[in-house]
Amino acid sequence: MAADSNWLLNAFNALLAQSGWEWLAVFLGIAYVILAAKNSKWAWPSAFVSTLTYTVLFWEGQLPMQALLNAYYLIMALYGFWLWSQSEKTTTTEQSATHVSIHQRSWKFHIGFIALGTTLSALIGWYLASSEASQLPYLDATVTVFSVMNTVLMARKVLENWLYWIVIDAAAIYLYWESGFYVTIIMFSLYLLLAFYGYRQWKQLITQQQTSQ
């Protein structure tokens, strides 16, 4: 019992010791997911500031793949904001290369998606392990690769992106626990719950789109 108490006390002290920058990144990251679930373009500016902060924090924390992932998120935040803003200017019946609406993809697409992500994760994980560049090379690589790929699905408003986030967020929680980013664990725990919420919200929106056509 004493060991359990010491473990909780140590975790609490470590939580208090986290930087204010990480708390800011967490707050904006949560705002991003909530706004994305509501199909709001303002999700992307929140994502931009959050990921800019995390790029620096993860690089300093010797999680290079997570730092690169967040640098990639910076670009995707700009792309997502532009794409969702353009979509607001057109109706669902207009044909436009920049118009996106919530939609689903076939099971064949998802088999290919998972196969590609798994292959890339294995190759990058092997490289990180051989170069000793990461604390948890294969998990670091897997979270990074699928997050990169899935962010594209989110920007393109593919409904199943939320299901992928459920798995990615669960894996990320373990990764950040092992690497000491305790405030980030809180954020990803909320992300995990919000992924269920996001899927439900988009499912309702896609139903509304289909009935209005």
Could you walk me through the main structural features you see in this protein, from its secondary elements to its overall organization?
This protein has 8 helices and no strands. It is mostly helical. It has one domain (22-212). Helix 2 (20-37) runs parallel beside helix 8 (182-212), helix 3 packs antiparallel against helix 4 (64-88) and helix 7 (161-179) runs antiparallel to helix 8. The radius of gyration is 18 Å and the shape is globular.
Strand percent estimate: under 5%
Q: Give the count of structural domains.
A: 1
Question: Share of helix among residues?
Answer: over 70%
Number of E-state strands: 0
Q: Largest sheet, if any?
A: none
Order of helices and strands: HHHHHHHH
CA-CA gap between termini:
61 Å
> Given the helix and strand composition, which structural class is it?
mainly alpha
Low-confidence stretches: none
Mean pLDDT: 84
Shape field: globular
Q: DSSP helix count?
A: 8
Estimated radius of gyration: 18 Å
Main location: membrane
GO cellular component, one term: plasma membrane
Subcellular location: Cell membrane
Keywords: Cell membrane, Membrane, Transmembrane, Transmembrane helix, Transport
